[in-house]
Amino acid sequence: MSTPHDSHQELSVSGGQAQPPARFENPGLHEHKPRQADVDPRVTKRVERQVLLLLTLSILGTIAVVWAYFALPPGDTVGSMRLSNLVLGVGLAVCLLGIGIGGNYYIKLLMSNREYVEERHEIRSSDETREIAVQMLKDGGEDSGLTRRGAIIGAGVTALALFPLSLLVPLIGNVGEDWNVRKFKHTIWKKGTRLATDPTGRPIKASDVTIGDVWHVIPESLEDLHEGKLDEKAKAVVLLVRLDPRDLKSDQSPEGETWSHDGIVAYSKICTHVGCPVALYEQQTHHLLCPCHQSTFDVADSCKVVFGPAKRPLPQLPITVDDEGYLVAQGDFAEPIGPSFWERATK
User: Fold this and answer.
1) Which residues pair with 296 in a beta bridge?
2) Which of 107, 99, 114 is nearest to 47 (CA)?
3) For strand 327-329 and strand 12-14, is the pairing parallel, antiparallel, or unpaired?
4) What are phi and psi of 245, to 5 degrees?
5) In terms of CB atoms within 10 Å, which of 8, 42, 66, 279 comes out highest?
6) What are the tens digits of pLDDT across the range 74-103?
7) 10 Å Cβ neighbour count for 143?
8) Which Gene3D superfamilies match (predicted)?
9) Of 158, 41, 35, 55, which Cα lies nearest the Cα of 102?
């Protein structure tokens, strides 16, 4: 049989069910175990040097990001873009990791890890209690060691102050970039330009495309992709699909001109939501899916939006065939390609 204890510690039985005690004994705080840095000054100095090094690396990382933004613009080649992105990414990683790891290291190994308990009081404390609280804050600041470690304070403040530059500098200027969005109103597609496979540039005959086929297409005139024409390719990429002509609900312009050829239709691959590449085609439903945010377009019905955040159909490239049977463009896209938040006027 169990020995009865105080009533507030026992489980009382009422109606056959155990009832929780009215209150529990306060177990108190766990025994404090000092860290090496608390008892060994050599360890303390070593940790201080490590924290200082990490914060200094953060400062250097921010400087590297700012320098790379101006000194290493993306340029027009794959190599220059890769180098610019690499330096910016590494610099941003160093400045963030330096602050994060350095700050966490300092908190865990140098700041006081003792637990303090203060009994709850009613609303406003007395003046005497407030004076005690202020003194406790001062003692806590002294206990943290910050008042005695000026170098770490200076490095930490400098790292935090410089870090926003790595995010703000790209927003302030447009070094190496061209933000004239009016250029998206037109691409290099022109009347008579042959449709070619991406990336080989081989012209496509209508007879090569069978029902259900999906082709990634670029203009045949797009050459020397690594010499200043990457931006032109980005604007001109097209997805070519062949359907059974009986499945097409619409293949005409507002003026009544036919924009397809024997069930073959061509649409811009650039999603009208935020510009991701649309390339997932479902043959049975004729739906075209954007993998980024799941905007879905109906290829059989002028690529109108059937689901997702996109607000505008994919621009259609009017196509036909030339005398040799090759697929050619009748002209440029009917309207500007790309996300809908840009100005949509076509003139």
Assistant:
1) 289, 307
2) 107
3) unpaired
4) -50, -30
5) 66
6) 877 878 888 989 999 999 999 999 999 999
7) 13
8) Rieske [2Fe-2S] iron-sulphur domain
9) 55
